[in-house]
Amino acid sequence: MAGSREPPLFELTFLGTSASAPSVHRGLSAQVVSYREHRFLIDCGEGTQRQILQAGIGFRRLKRILITHGHLDHILGLAGLLSTFSRWEAIEELEIWAGKHALERIHDLLFGVVLRGARPSMRIDLVPVESGTLLEEESFRLSAIPVTHRGPGCYGFVFEELARRPFLPEQADRLGVPAGPLRRDLVAGKPIHLPDGRKVSPDDVLGPLRRGTRLVHIGDCGRTDDLVEGCREADGLVIEATYLEVEAEMARSFGHLTARQAAELAAAAGVGHLYLTHISRRYREREVLEEAAAVFPNVSVARDFDRIQIRRSDD
User: Fold this and answer.
1) Residue 204 annotated as catalytic
2) Long-range contacts for 81-87 (Cβ within 8 Å, ≥24 apart)?
3) DSSP code of 29?
4) Which of 102, 109, 111, 158 is most buried, by the most CB atoms less than 10 A from its CB?
5) Whole-structure pTM over 0.90, yes or no?
6) Where are the domains of the chain?
């Protein structure tokens, strides 16, 4: 019914939260973002297909894969996933979105190693990513923002509900607008006429324009000063925290962040909640959390199979 509270627009499932090598408790990088009928797999480290099954989310509607960059710990799982799709899953098309450099490696992996000249059982589209809008629908936009890491063509992804004017059911009740198509027309911005001849305009039942829910996902990353605006007012920010500040120089040399740097970005961008991932085996989870929380208290260290609902921070 128009005006009822909708479920959270974005659900985030962490499948792999380890840094460049897996650990006993953490798999390699992979997350799923769900939005209504859409599902996006972000990165596909080795073992991702098993993590998908263990998480209980299955392969249904998992046809669009977003790759943050072309390093092997973020793409090797594509080989196994394609092999499984080719043999067991009724998937008609697969889209892999990535920067040019990453797509070259992915093409070699899939067509040179997995398929080796064989015709795939589904259509495979390798879609080049550039900064800006990648996909836009009536209420939803997916965008890419450039990220600095080792090598060219690294991107973060922004999932956002488009700004809208909320429907005010008490106003509609007061005006005698019945539930059903007439309310839907008003939500769509169309004026209506009631059975008694009165005209009701959208301005009569819609509140002020308000921004939508915003989720930003950043993969491996070597600096944050160029990300503040892209992360501005995100309700959820997912970003790496491979090192602690005591090894900040090593982090810089490998193009990664410390937990403190990730927290400083969250504070500067005014995000709602910070989710740290890409966790190294060299640290205890508690150490990572404490370093970040000292700067930005609203922070969690993600674990494999965590499932998070992303809401507007002021809801």
Assistant:
1) no
2) 81/44, 81/48, 81/49, 82/110, 82/114, 82/115, 82/120, 82/124, 83/114, 84/49, 84/59, 85/59, 85/121, 85/122, 86/120, 86/121, 86/122
3) S
4) 102
5) no
6) 10-164+210-310, 169-204
Span of 9-23, 166-180, 230-244, 290-304 with lowest mean pLDDT = 166-180
Lowest mean pLDDT of 99-103, 192-196, 271-275, name the range: 192-196
270, pLDDT greater than 90:
yes
Which tokens belong to 113? 């190693």
Bridge partners of 30, per DSSP, are: 16
Mark residue 270 as left, alpha or beta (left: phi above 0; alpha: psi -120 to 50; beta: remaining).
Answer: left
- Confidence class for position 187, pLDDT limits 50, 70, 90: confident
Catalytic pick among 73, 220, 235, 304? 73
Fold entry, domain 10-164+210-310: Metallo-beta-lactamase; Chain A (3.60.15)
